[in-house]
Specification:
This protein has 311 residues and is mostly helical. Helix content is 68%, strand content 0%.
Length: 311
């Protein structure tokens, strides 16, 4: 098979196998019980203190939706994903019209590879925010400037797009990221959404539209926390070289943030027909301990589809 024909075959396979990644959900229980990625003793101690405070607040305010949500978030930060999901489910029973519970439960369904359940949650959240004003979503782990960069509506559309992307349903992922772009009101949000939107369009072989996504991106953007996505976009635009970005990222390959960049590089190799190099980077990501990062989860899904398309 020629290189060109093989490239076309793989792209078609990636686009037409939306159910392939869903087979991972058979092992969702394993992920729900898997130990979380390691953190420093200092960080873990701080997270445990925050969890204790959140639990105390919840116990004294059991009818406060904020107390529900923060306890669920603090549980998840410590890797207690099953408990977190169960708590959000109780919150949904109590506050069925609050989109935040579906948003947070959906996020943790993604973490443990329950992609269909995540999609169901985010679709319901999207219905509940229709025609409603957006609201800033506070960070559980603040960035260096202590300035939240995301909103509720951003997170619903962003994670819904991701869930569809992970299942290989790129058309629906595209619609979600288009909606997310409408509420990406700061440089960090714009960088994150544009990165996944660009990759989705490239997967659909809509290269001219992908190029248009890069028009607002420039090297002077005031990025607080999404520097990796920003640098990937600059690479796509030709402002920085792939070799430069890859070299600097491989030096810090153990960090979750580096996985986002490595995944972007692996995807770039993939939709440019360089499948051996793509698979090498994707495998490198999945050999790490950072199994909860979106870069890891996406690399895992891509490798599964690549293996199936070549078998």
């Amino acid at each position: 098979m020629s290189t060109m024909k093989h490239s076309i075959f793989v792209l078609i396979a990636l686009a037409l196998l939306p159910l392939a990644a869903r087979e991972q959900e058979n092992s969702a229980g394993d992920f729900a019980d898997r130990p979380p990625p390691p953190v420093s003793a200092e960080a873990k101690n701080e997270m445990q203190k925050n969890l204790a405070a959140a639990r105390a607040k919840f116990e004294s305010n059991p009818n406060d939706p904020e107390a529900f949500i923060w306890l669920g978030r603090r549980l998840a930060y410590l890797g207690q994903f099953r408990d977190s999901i169960d708590l959000y489910t109780k919150g949904i029973d109590k506050f069925p019209n609050d989109p935040r519970f579906y948003r947070h439960r959906g996020h943790r369904h993604i973490t443990i590879r329950r992609f269909d359940q995540a999609i169901t949650d985010f679709e319901q959240a999207a219905k509940l925010i229709r025609d409603k004003p957006d609201q800033v979503e506070p960070d559980g782990q603040p960035n260096p400037r202590n300035i939240p960069t995301s909103t509720l509506q951003f997170n619903i559309w962003y994670h819904l797009g991701l869930a569809y992307y992970l299942t290989g349903d790129y058309e629906k992922a595209l619609k979600s990221y288009r909606e997310c772009l409408k509420v990406s009101k700061n440089p960090d949000a714009l960088a994150a959404t544009s990165h996944w939107l660009y990759m989705t369009l490239r997967r659909l072989n809509r290269n001219a539209e992908a190029a248009q996504v890069l028009n607002p991106i420039h090297d002077k953007m005031d990025i607080i926390e999404n520097d990796g996505y920003h640098r990937l976009l600059l690479m796509y635009k030709g402002v920085i070289s792939r070799e430069e970005l890859q070299t600097e990222t491989l030096k810090q390959a153990a960090s979750p943030g580096s996985h986002s960049v490595l995944y972007g590089l692996g995807s770039w190799y993939l939709y440019n027909g360089r499948h051996t190099e793509a698979a090498e980077i994707l495998r490198k990501i999945t050999e790490s301990e950072q199994w909860t990062s979106f870069g890891y989860i996406a690399a895992e899904a891509d490798l599964k589809r690549l293996n199936q398309s070549s078998s």
